[in-house]
Specification:
The protein is an alpha/beta fold. The chain has one domain (about 25-135): 2,3-Dihydroxybiphenyl 1,2-Dioxygenase, domain 1. About 20% of the residues lie in helices and about 25% in strands. The protein is built from three helices and eight strands; from the N terminus they run E-H-E-H-E-E-E-H-E-E-E. The protein has helices spanning about 30-40, 50-55, 95-105, and strands at about 25-30, 45, 55-60, 70-75, 85-90, 110, 120-125, 130-135. The chain has a four-stranded mixed beta sheet with strand order 1-4-3-2. The chain has a four-stranded mixed beta sheet with strand order 5-8-7-6, covered by helices on one side. Strand 3 (about 55-60) and strand 4 (about 70-75) form a beta hairpin. It is globular and about 40 Å long.
């Protein structure tokens, strides 16, 4: 996007922002269980970020060691409202998306309705109720 173009409300221009996200943080009461679920959902492994070293958090990252971390922070409170931001996961090329959704459901995900209507993706919630989408293979 060129700076000043319609939709460029932040004036970011055409700079590459693809590696500016350091982590995505979420709160969880049962961090280790939720980390196990997201490890299955993403294929990511325990990371070694600063937050991972601090008490009360768990960190996951791509096994290639690139991209953002998923930080699961301690929370004493259960989730009560719809997420304002969520993760999307996509099966690998050639992977059966129906089988991917079935594997996530077997790991504790449940169907979720966030008002998506008839969509080409599947909306689920992780074991603590955080919504996410399963997209088509990428």
């Amino acid at each position: 996007m060129v700076s000043g173009a319609p939709g460029d409300v932040l004036g970011l221009g055409d700079e590459d922002w693809s590696n500016r996200v350091g982590d995505a943080a979420a709160e969880a009461v049962f961090r280790l269980a939720v980390a196990g679920f997201w490890r299955l959902a993403t294929g990511w492994v325990p990371g070694d970020s600063i937050a991972f070293l601090s008490a009360g958090s768990v960190s996951l990252r791509s096994p290639a060691g690139v991209g953002p971390y998923l930080e699961l922070l301690a929370s004493a409170d259960a989730k009560t409202v719809k997420n304002r931001i969520h993760l999307d996961v996509a099966p690998e090329q050639g992977e059966d998306p129906v089988a991917a959704v079935a594997a996530l459901r077997a790991a504790g995900a449940v169907p979720a309705d966030v008002g998506q209507g008839a969509a080409s993706w599947t909306v689920l919630a992780d074991p603590e109720g955080s919504e996410f989408c399963v997209l088509s293979p990428r």
